[in-house]
Design goal:
By secondary structure, the protein is mainly alpha-helical. It is 84% helix and 0% strand. It starts with 14 loop residues before the first helix and ends with a helix. InterPro entries: DUF4577 (IPR028099). Keywords: Membrane, Transmembrane, Transmembrane helix.
Length: 130
């Protein structure tokens, strides 16, 4: 199969632009010429011969990702702690309500015992009189 030659006219581009276009054409040529297995080997060779710009960019990206993950973790932790504190306060309020009810019921029971004793005394006295 014949491949058409790629001619690009770049009259007003700067040197960096030309290098970028040439690099892109080289990458395109590698994709067309090399099979999948050998392309991976070529990519590894290019990565080892890199100037460090990609690793610096990936380090910054990793640091930003770590920072964002850390902030999200802190926010979720704060939300969970707030929810637990809310539950503790609600539980304390319910316990206070139950305690006050128990105390009032205890008072009612003591009053009923006193009334029962009074009734029993009255009945005992009325039996004795008869």
């Amino acid at each position: 199969m014949e491949r058409p030659s790629l001619e690009i006219n770049l009259p007003d581009t700067h040197e960096e632009g030309k290098l970028y276009v040439v690099d892109s054409l080289n990458n395109l040529n590698k994709l067309n010429v090399c099979p999948d297995g050998s392309q991976h080997a070529l990519d590894e060779e290019e990565n080892t011969g890199d100037t460090g710009e990609n690793t610096a960019g990936s380090n910054i990206r990793n640091q930003c990702l770590f920072f964002v993950t850390f902030i999200l973790t802190l926010i979720v932790s704060l939300a969970l702690v707030s929810f637990v504190i809310f539950l503790i306060i609600q539980t304390r309020n319910k316990m206070d309500q139950i305690t006050s009810r128990l105390l009032s019921e205890k008072k009612n029971i003591e009053e009923l015992k006193k009334m029962n004793n009074m009734i029993l005394k009255h009945l005992n006295q009325s039996r004795i009189k008869r």
